[in-house]
Design brief:
Layout (H helix, E strand, L loop, with lengths): L2 H10 L4 H19 L1 H21 L1
Length: about 60
């Protein structure tokens, strides 16, 4: 197999495609968490406050 055929085979190889997709998804998720961090903290805090209020009623 000569260099030209090896290069074509390398370009057609898609075995690493799933790894790239997973990395891109993780980057997007991390970016969303960083952007909406404050809102997420407020939501979680309000959920725990509601849980604590309802536990006191039981």
């Amino acid at each position: 197999m000569n260099l030209k055929n090896q290069w074509k085979a390398f370009l057609k190889d898609e075995s690493g495609l799933s790894t790239v997709e997973i990395i891109l998804i993780l980057v997007v998720l991390i970016a969303l968490v960083l952007i909406f961090k404050d809102e997420m903290i407020e939501i979680v805090e309000s959920i725990f406050k509601t849980i604590n209020k309802r536990i006191d009623k039981i």
